[in-house]
Amino acid sequence: MGTTLNIRLWTDTDDVSALTEMLHRAYKPLADMGLRFLATHQNDTITRERVSAGKTFLGEVDGVVIATVTLVAPEDAGGCPWYDRPEVASFGQLAVEPHLQKQGIAAKLLDLVEAEATAMGAAEIALDTSEEAHHLINYYAKRGYRFIEYTQWPDVNYRSVIMSKTL
Question: Do residues 88 and 164 lie in contact, with contact meaning Cβ atoms separated by under 8 Å?
């Protein structure tokens, strides 16, 4: 990477359009697979809603946002049976600029959200992804996440797998 990664919380003064564009770039390989993840096409309003739904972290290099993830506390998670459990935090919208992927940035963000979820009192941290995104499922499995259930979100064109990790 060359320079230091700084991770900080999202603020209302951050550029939502720049974050939306970075999400589109990061999720483009999934769109190219025919998977309609929300982050492949969401607008700024949806990005703002999603970052406001939890604790959003930004990864910066030289003041430029190059990564993000949003942690949702157990009391705010929901939408499927596993997420509805009171001890389960979740995260989403994990993204890293394509040219900086595979350099450990996502791992650092995940280490942070796992620690934050533990500090919140969560016993589990969960995520969802397309059942067709085998590379992502394998990545999360290597980090200790296990399959929980399937769900179908209304805004996507695939069945999702819910994966969770005991904290």
Answer: yes
Residue 3 is encoded by which pair of tokens?
Answer: 């320079």
Q: How far apart are CA 80 and CA 164, in angstroms?
A: 13
Cβ atoms of residues 14 and 107 within 8 Å: no
pTM for this entry: 0.95
**Lookup result for tokens 């695939």:** 158
Quick one: pLDDT at residue 2? 58
Four-CA torsion 43, 153, 67, 77, nearest 10 degrees: 110
**Closest C-alpha to 92, from 45, 32, 134, 153:** 153
- Cβ(132)–Cβ(158) under 8 Å? yes
Q: Which residues contact 62 (CB under 8 A, 6 or more apart)?
A: 3
Instruction: Give residue-wise pLDDT tens across range 81-136.
Output: 999 999 999 999 999 999 999 999 999 999 999 999 999 999 999 999 999 999 99
pLDDT at 78: 87
Q: What is the 3-state secondary structure (H, E, C) of 128-140?
A: EEECCCHHHHHHH
